[in-house]
Design a protein that fits this description.
Layout: H1 4-34, H2 36-39, H3 41-65, H4 73-92, H5 97-126, H6 130-151, H7 162-192
Helix pairs in contact: 1-3, 1-7, 3-4, 4-5, 5-6, 6-7
Length: 193
Amino acid sequence: MKTVKEKQGTNQNWLKSYYYLRFAVSAAWVALAFTLGRSIPALAAVMLVAYPAWDALANYLDARRSGGLARNRSQMLNFVVSVVTAVAVTATLPHGMHAVLKIFGVWAVLSGLFQLITGIKRWKTAGAQWAMILSGGQSGLAGVHMLVQAAGAAAVSIADIAPYAAFGAFYFLVSAISLTISDARRRSTVVVA
């Protein structure tokens, strides 16, 4: 049977790996959005559905490692909102990018709120969650910005969603690095003691 410290270390290792994975997937999505996604509409459509679908899967996997969706309500809500968003984007794509951007705006606000709640809750057990808390707040602001853009007349594309994903990638990387540094400090303290 694992001790509390061993469980915490295992959870922290998972969280670190999870944040690095979220960074890598988001960074790849952003790179594709700014390159091929801009010029290949079919690829952009698949990417616009895949982004919230990936977020749903990632929240599910993370919650499962942390006691399940029932024990992690903010992640459960984030999972549900992301699934609904992927379905809504699929249904809305034929109506144009302004409609899709509205859906992404609402999703960014809601998922940001749930990420903020998850970050605050995790602070007690994992520490180093300040970047996830900032990310949740920034996601809400980005969502409002997308809603304003969607209501305007200027042309919009996947490139208008990519900065939101890029900030997400940045925050996941910062969180992963913060946990890595925190682990290194903890190990050096244990060795010195």
